């Protein structure tokens, strides 16, 4: 089969012929239909410092996907997942034995292995995944395959946005990348009163406007404090969703929260940085770290949001056949885009 492989410890990727993966008794074999390119994949392609520390070449990369089940292992309960099901997959594979796993808090497993990072991933014509990591789309005829392919990052957005009650609240989102824009769409759909988002990219701010944010702020030109005035806020934002990993973004968010405000932080900083802990303490602000998705409550929430009319189509801005992966990765790395999709169902 064809697969997109980090073949050597150097920059670049190769579309290679590789053996079909073996299906174990608790696994399912999935024919890949669509995949989404993630920032992690860009790091691996560039072979930057993070990739050098976390990837053992050769490795089939990728973790955002949708596909069709073509084989199930002998121990798999076919009432849960069966041949012919349209599925996506939870890309965090957990140990099942640590305290958090045994308590049902699998998203907190300290032994997590990442699909496409610690084991071969989804950028291939077929992949094998434990049945326990498979999410079956129960209403496939109503689901766009491109949207199904990005359930993994959509889950990051949902997990972050729904960490706190949003109904009637004023929400500040820092970082208008694809996940930040999806979080903005979720916040509006979930009943937030006002949603503001910040970035320095005019393209991404326009993308955020397309999903209905109340205010898109170019922080190279104006401040969040000025945004409060434009929105008619008197005491600051109630909920903050930090998606950028930028020190200045979190600092400005803290400075513009109301007393008792709540912040969910998904953005991963590249280095340590200082914040105003005095402000955090005296204003009694909650700061919560977010990583991945809750298994599988977030997945249920994603499906329900889409069934309820949430539209993610504006976030998907590029579509390529898998053989055009270089062009797809170049567009994704350029920053003037939303989510980029690779189609594995054709020979284009």
Please report which band the strand proportion falls in: under 5%, 5-15%, 15-25%, 25-35%, 35-45% or over 45%: 25-35%
Q: Can you identify the CATH class of the largest domain?
A: Alpha Beta
The main β sheet shows up as: 7 strands, mixed
* Helix count, DSSP H or I runs of 4 or more residues: 12
Provide the domain count. Answer: 2
Give the proportion of residues in helices: 25-40%
Write out the CATH superfamily name of the largest domain: Medium-chain alcohol dehydrogenases, catalytic domain
Uncertain segments are: none
Specify the overall morphology. Answer: globular
Q: What is the alpha-carbon Rg in Å? A: 20 Å
Structural class estimated from helices and strands: alpha/beta
Description:
The chain is α/β, with parallel strands linked by helices and 348 residues long. The protein has two domains: 2-150 and 312-343, Quinone Oxidoreductase, Chain A, domain 1 (Alpha-Beta Complex); 160-289, 3-Layer(aba) Sandwich (Rossmann fold). 28% of the residues lie in helices and 26% in strands. The chain contains twelve helices and 18 strands. The protein has helices spanning 39-46, 49-54, 99-102, 145-149, 151-161, 178-189, 202-210, 224-231, 247-255, 277-282, 297-307, 325-334; strands at residues 2-6, 14-17, 27-36, 59-60, 64-72, 86-89, 92-93, 113-114, 126-130, 134-136, 170-174, 194-199, 215-218, 237-242, 257-265, 286-289, 316-321, 339-343. Strands 3, 5, 6, 9, 10, 17 and 18 form a seven-stranded mixed beta sheet that branches. A hairpin with a 7-residue loop joins strand 1 and strand 2. Helix 5 packs across helix 6 (178-189) and helix 5 (151-161) packs across helix 11 (297-307). The longest helix is centred in the middle third of the chain and has 12 residues, at 178-189. It starts with a strand and ends in a 5-residue tail after the last strand.
């Amino acid at each position: 089969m064809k697969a997109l492989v980090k073949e050597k410890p150097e920059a670049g990727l190769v579309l290679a012929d590789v053996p079909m993966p073996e299906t174990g008794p608790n696994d399912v074999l999935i024919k890949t239909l669509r995949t989404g390119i993630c920032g992690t994949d860009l790091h691996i392609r560039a072979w930057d410092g993070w990739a050098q520390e976390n990837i053992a070449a050769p490795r089939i990369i990728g973790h955002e996907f949708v596909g069709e089940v073509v084989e199930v292992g002998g121990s798999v309960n076919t009432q849960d997942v069966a041949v012919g099901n349209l599925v996506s997959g939870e890309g965090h594979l957990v140990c099942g034995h640590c305290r958090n796993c045994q308590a049902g808090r699998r998203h907190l497993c300290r032994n997590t292995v990442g699909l496409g990072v610690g084991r071969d991933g989804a950028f291939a014509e077929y992949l094998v995944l434990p049945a326990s990591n498979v999410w079956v789309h129960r209403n496939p005829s109503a689901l766009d395959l491109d949207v199904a392919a990005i359930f993994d990052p959509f889950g990051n957005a949902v997990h972050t946005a729904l960490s706190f009650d949003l109904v009637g609240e004023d929400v500040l989102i820092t970082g208008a990348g694809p996940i930040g824009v999806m979080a903005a769409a979720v916040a509006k759909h979930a009943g937030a009163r006002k949603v503001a988002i910040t970035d320095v990219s005019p393209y991404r701010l326009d993308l955020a406007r397309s999903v209905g944010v109340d205010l898109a702020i170019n922080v190279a030109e104006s401040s969040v404090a000025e945004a409060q005035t434009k929105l008619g806020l008197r005491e600051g934002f109630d909920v903050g969703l930090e998606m950028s990993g930028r020190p200045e973004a979190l600092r400005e968010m803290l400075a513009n929260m109301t007393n008792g405000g709540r912040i969910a932080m998904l953005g991963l900083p590249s280095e340590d940085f200082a914040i105003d802990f005095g402000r955090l303490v005296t204003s009694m602000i909650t700061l919560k770290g977010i990583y991945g998705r809750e298994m599988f409550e977030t997945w249920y929430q994603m499906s329900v949001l889409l069934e309820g009319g949430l539209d993610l189509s504006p976030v998907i801005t590029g579509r390529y056949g898998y053989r055009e992966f270089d062009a797809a990765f170049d567009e994704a790395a350029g920053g003037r885009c939303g989510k980029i999709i690779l189609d594995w169902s054709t020979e284009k």
